[in-house]
Amino acid sequence: MSRLEFARPELLWLLALLPLFWARYRRQPVVAIIWRSVLVMAIVAALAEPRIVEPRNPIKTGEDVFAFDVSRSIPADTQRWIIRQERLPTSADRVFIFAGAAEASRDWKRQLEAPSSSLQPERTNLEALFSALLQLPREERSVFLFTDGWENDGSAERLLPALAEAGIKIYPILPPERPVVANVAVNKIIGPAEAVKGEALNLKIAVENSNQREVDGTMKLKRGGRLIKTDAVRLRAGSQLLNYPVTLGEEPLESFEAEFTPRRADADILPFDNRATAWVGVQAREKALVINGRGGEGRYVEDLLKRSGFEVRSSSGGAPPAPTGYGIVVLNNVDRDHLTSAYLSALERYATAGGGLVMLGDNTALTPGYRQTPLAAALPLDFSEAKEKEKEPEKTRAVLLVIDKSKSMDPETNPLGENRILYAKEIAKRVISQLGDEDYIGVLGFD
Description:
The chain is an alpha/beta fold.
């Protein structure tokens, strides 16, 4: 038969206060006292969380396994909640105790209160528990898993297919509300997988404060094992992101490590999860070569290329560097006589192989002298003599001014007393002053 149980039976002790209640209202009618007593008992019973418990089915298949999480993230309230559960192991059931490691247990109640150090209680590794279950002789099993769901080591998801294939069913038994854990975790560092050498990055550190209050401490950021930033931080309850601007160095692979140290140790019971690491692949900057025909003219082009992420080399006067190894070559106002035929051939081969070639200049530099060179074949340009463009005659305009001359423009008749016709004349003069000698102007008055 079904039976009645209370999830929080300790609250029933409140009924011991009923004599005080009766003494307080002893002068009230008996019916009123009885009615109020029944109401108080109903409230206390509701707070104790009554429930109907069905008896176990004596017919079962397979083995029942009970697994109890004894890591430090389990607060005392949750341990007491576990002991009060109706579904607890009998002498015929198999029991596992786990934290960072897992082991079979007979005296599970004692280990629940005082777990051994061999279980690594500073960690919670469900994968270690599932591995131990898979090593048992093959049999259908129902595993009743008592935990708070807080896993900071291993990856239980990797073994779920193997558990299903082995006929092992997992029944997580969790507290109705997630318990408050005095812990701060550095979950991860968020940043790009790849970036260019010398580029400025904005790394984000994902932190979760499981306390119900703010936690003060120190956040350290290291690059390649060397400390580059130390910040005093105050972490509010819940999840948040901390931003840290950094600049990439010369290494082909840069490592960044974030570590949090609380000011008070009792605010962070699991120091194991206070550290996170991220890796960023560093790509070399693409190089650009700027060949200037006249000294000091290339600074604007060089600044533009640098802002675009290029590593710029500038050449003015003398023999320019070979174009090989550069992502882009810019000829900036370079006369034909400044470049040898061999160098022009090298530029043509460079552009044909996919290199970027830009040619800038005025009519004194981009002369027909380039016409018969290999460079003319590499660029979509015609180095012919430019013909002077005939000047087009200016167009004649005709403007008609339409001006209101009704009585509303007269200061003696309009309600505001404004000389509006004077304003219209001044505006007309402004328009006329913009016209040329060959333009036409007309005026049309209306009322």
